[in-house]
Amino acid sequence: MEILRDGLSALIDSHPDMDLVGASTTADDALRIATDLLPLVILVDLDLPSSEGIAIIRGILAANDAACPIGLITNEWDEVGREALQAGAWSCVAKDRLMSDLAAAIRRGCQMSPRNQGG
To answer: Checking CA distances to 18, which of 43, 59, 102, 111 falls within 20 to 30 Å?
Structure first.
């Protein structure tokens, strides 16, 4: 998990139009970041035990309804991805496509945030 988090942080930091505002290791940390720092986009690793990732998405949206959660999934559009979208994730990106697709997904998520839509 730490290598994924560090890699994502480096990827985001490599884009001058993006700011990493926080990183978490627990669901409680993710919810604190969603509430305190109000990021437009929040990446959620969905390869967590049970359905913790889905619960995190729901909690994030309850704490910050302007956030656009993006689920990180192992396989393209598996059952977990469908559950994440039903829980309110804006999108899902397969981990094997992170380098090529994640920056574009983050940019689209920022554009879709209600804070950027006048909502």
So the answer is: 59
Alpha-carbon span 38 to 54, nearest angstrom: 19
Structure tokens at 42: 């929040």
User: Looking at the whole model, is its pTM more than 0.90?
Assistant: no
Burial of 5 (0-12, 13-18, 19+ CB in 10 A): middle
Q: How far apart are the C-alpha atoms of 53 and 29, rounded to whole Å?
A: 13
- Which structural domains are found in the chain, ordered by start? 2-112 (3.40.50.2300)
Q: Which residue has the tokens 């981990």?
A: 95
> In tens digits, what is the pLDDT along the chain, a chain of 119 residues?
678 888 888 888 888 888 899 888 888 888 888 889 988 889 998 887 666 889 999 999 998 888 899 999 886 667 888 999 999 998 888 887 767 688 888 888 777 766 666 55
